[in-house]
Specification:
Layout (H helix, E strand, L loop, with lengths): L1 H12 L4 H22 L5 H5 L3 H13 L4 H22 L24 H11 L7 H17 L3 H5 L12 E5 L5 E5 L2 H13 L21 H15 L7 H14 L4 H8 L4 H7 L4 H11 L6
Antiparallel strand pairs: 1-2
């Protein structure tokens, strides 16, 4: 019962996605099962409140012994800390030891970006993948153009409604992670691709319905969008890292290499912290050197 209540807390109070809430609940179930075996007691709220640091460390050690990835254990620890915040609010009890737990160090990797040439080739190929259904080809091109031209997450793009782009606005309101809204500029090329798709789409305008539709008229799913990208990249014989997310990353690297500052990029991408933006993007050293030499007075000889 407490797991179900925790799930509702994550969804309604914290604004987490269903996927994140489910993952957190699985992590908590894993901890509770371990803790009962470790302590020999039922994991009641009162017992959990008195759990010691050694119990938490033993739990993470047991995960490491099973070969669990550090990233998964780091997420599990975040879930556990959130769970303790929840039971503190629900039952008025606190555990001082959990705050002392440090997350396992996870090596953070930079995503690979799609080159400008390959990105344009993807758009062209998407426009040719459904010769028998021109509106589906236009849809695929519009979606890829949106990802590459606005840097949206695939979930954000698929959550857009017809009403979001009504009247060809200069900016579009996007609902990001944690239910946070942000405004993203929309360039004319993106408008043109979406307008062509909506012109050919065999469904009328409905402000409250999904912008991107399947062949049956239902909202296009994330897996279908990923398959569309896979099909295009296979036709072009591009590497496996060419995904919808890679198009978002390409948007970021293009802007950063052309002088957009990190704070602005952070807002455009919808990152909660600047450190995420710094790891998410990559500027080649020649560009950094060029900026440094043109901007810093001591760099000029």
């Amino acid at each position: 019962m407490i797991i179900q209540d925790f799930r509702e807390y994550l969804l309604t109070v914290r604004g987490y996605s269903v996927h994140t809430a489910e993952s957190y609940c699985l992590d908590i179930k894993n901890f509770l099962n371990f803790f009962e075996d470790y302590s020999g007691e039922e994991a009641s709220a009162e017992v959990l409140a008195n759990a010691e640091l050694t119990a938490f460390r033993a739990w993470l050690s047991s995960r490491a012994a099973k070969g669990t990835a550090k990233a998964s254990s780091a997420r599990a620890l975040s879930a556990l800390k959130m769970f303790y915040k929840f039971i503190a609010k629900r039952f008025g009890i606190k555990n001082s030891a959990i705050a002392l737990m440090q997350s396992p160090r996870v090596p953070r990797k930079l995503s690979k970006a799609v080159s400008g040439e390959d990105a344009l080739a993807l758009l062209k190929t998407a426009d040719e993948m459904h010769p028998e259904d021109p509106w589906l080809a236009a849809r695929d091109k519009a979606l890829m153009t949106l990802l590459y031209g606005c840097g949206l997450r695939i979930s954000e793009a698929l959550n857009l409604k017809d009403g979001n782009i009504s009247g060809a606005p200069e900016v579009v309101r996007v609902r990001g992670k944690g239910g946070k809204d942000r405004l993203v500029p929309i360039m004319p090329a993106v408008h043109a691709a979406i307008a062509q798709y909506m012109k050919l789409r065999p469904y009328g305008f409905d402000a409250g319905r999904a912008l991107f539709r399947s062949s049956k008229g239902t909202a296009l799913g994330a897996r279908a969008a990923q398959r569309m990208t896979e099909q295009a990249r296979n036709l072009l014989m591009l590497p496996d890292y060419v995904t919808p997310h890679a198009l978002r990353h390409s948007f970021a690297t293009v802007l950063l290499s052309n002088g957009v500052d990190l704070r602005t990029l952070q807002e455009l991408l919808g990152h909660s912290s600047l450190s995420t933006t710094q790891l998410y993007t990559k500027v080649d050293m020649s560009t950094l050197t060029e900026i440094y030499e043109s901007a810093h007075p001591r760099a000029k000889r």
